[in-house]
Amino acid sequence: MQEVEMKEGILQRKWKLATIRIANRANPVHYTELADVPIETGRKFYRWYSKRS
Known about the structure:
This protein is an alpha+beta fold. The protein is built from two helices and three strands, in the order E-H-E-E-H.
């Protein structure tokens, strides 16, 4: 299971935005979503989150 993923929709790509989805390891799994963040912020968060585990 991925813990964090970043997605871009068609309109988000046009406006350079992204959605970040984070999953914790609880039972049941809980998902948190951050929609329409600037793409560069999303990339930085994704790299930071991936390195911390």
